[in-house]
């Protein structure tokens, strides 16, 4: 027991060795039943420093929903008093954020190298991309599609049997820096492709007939920052004249209803849309690659957390995509497939009505480029751990998500356009 506690504290120190301590920080869930509750939440957000977990910002709080938010230790008392005085129903999801962060590293022993069932830092992931490509030259090639604001290479893995003119599926992970389960899935996908090709019928057919472009971490600078300074960081790490605040929300930075709904024009906000559409170097790299390969890319999957949802366009408005009925049926079948393994329940539907209005998202942008099958996965869980899903859940989360991804990919093979 003592040994595992020591390992956990070492892991925690390496994941957060010089920044926010998070001791005594809490995560609350408030139930919003009427307009008055919404107004009270706005009042609370304007008087206390609140880090919104779900939804992403105060502007997205809606009737008959719950709001999850993180409060610093020094503000906990004030927030609890406010909630109680105003008869707002609330529960404490996480009583001490620091101990929950330590508990994240609950897989036994810290391997020094790369592991598919642990959270890997960026250096480990970068080395892994090189190694997995070198060890599997007949299935994987590696390229760089751009560099981040801080100058890191954005490595892309192309997974599939080399054949000319193959249709492709693009999958990216790690848009929001604190959603660590997301990059874990991209790595898992590559592992399973390599491990089961030639062994398992469905994966073999998919890799013979499709290429998968895998971007293991999109927001690398932000991801590095969550390991070194602030575990709860969300945005990129770009700087701009006139503000001391860093970064933009990359999933509000695409040219799809840019900065209209559910996005902020304030550089200090977690949902800041950026100075212009595609202002972030990471966004530019992604859109340039997809535009260049648009004729072959038939599907786009972007992997986020948390809330167990499978979303499709649109999120920037309440309009429905042209093939809404098809996307809805496909999402329904995919979440059924996902649930078949561990019984994990997902909801599904168009982003705007299923979760909230949010402009500038990559899935809407991809769809508007003509990619008919565009989906956002919101992985586990529904709030018990939030962004701090324990490593012991990586395997099950990735296994079930893979079933849904393979289901959609197989469907696409039968419905090429």
TL;DR?
This protein is α/β, with parallel strands linked by helices. The protein contains 13 helices and twelve strands.
Q: How would you describe the overall organization of this protein?
A:
This protein has an 8-stranded mixed beta sheet, sandwiched between helices. A 4-stranded antiparallel beta sheet has the order 2-3-1-4. Mean pLDDT is 92; it is low at 1-18. Helices cover 38% and strands 18% of the residues. The radius of gyration is 21 Å and the shape is globular. It has helices at residues 2-15, 35-47, 73-85, 97-104, 122-135, 181-196, 201-209, 220-228, 281-292, 324-342, 351-354, 362-368, 394-414, and strands spanning 26-32, 50-54, 65-71, 90-94, 140-147, 153-159, 168-173, 211-215, 297-305, 309-312, 347-350, 373-379. With 417 residues, it is of the alpha/beta class.
Layout of SSEs?
Layout: H1 2-15, E1 26-32, H2 35-47, E2 50-54, E3 65-71, H3 73-85, E4 90-94, H4 97-104, H5 122-135, E5 140-147, E6 153-159, E7 168-173, H6 181-196, H7 201-209, E8 211-215, H8 220-228, H9 281-292, E9 297-305, E10 309-312, H10 324-342, E11 347-350, H11 351-354, H12 362-368, E12 373-379, H13 394-414
Parallel strand pairs: 7-8, 7-9, 9-12, 10-11
Antiparallel strand pairs: 1-3, 1-4, 2-3, 5-6, 6-8, 10-12
Helix pairs in contact: 1-4, 6-13, 7-13, 10-13
